[in-house]
Design goal:
With 72 residues, the protein is mainly alpha-helical. It has 3 helices and no strands.
Length: 72
């Protein structure tokens, strides 16, 4: 019984790893690359907003962490 279950598990689980996820991400990046060519200012503003938001979140996390765990 256990052998049959393990044998059927080989059919359900891929042993390729997660490389197909990276390939799918590469395919999904193609429209974004085209957007850079056709809408450069909008993409630049979006990237700037994402970077600014990331910096703000990291700074806020550092402040909260420093406030919760003060150093003597």
């Amino acid at each position: 019984m256990i052998g049959a279950l393990l044998h059927s598990l080989d059919d359900l689980v891929s042993s390729d790893g997660a490389w197909w996820i990276l390939a799918l991400d590469g395919i999904l990046l193609i429209p974004l690359i085209f957007a850079v060519f056709f809408f450069p200012m909008a993409v630049l503003i979006g990237v700037g907003a994402a970077v600014g938001l990331t910096i703000a979140v990291v700074a806020l996390m550092r402040v909260v962490c420093a406030h919760q765990h003060p150093h003597p």
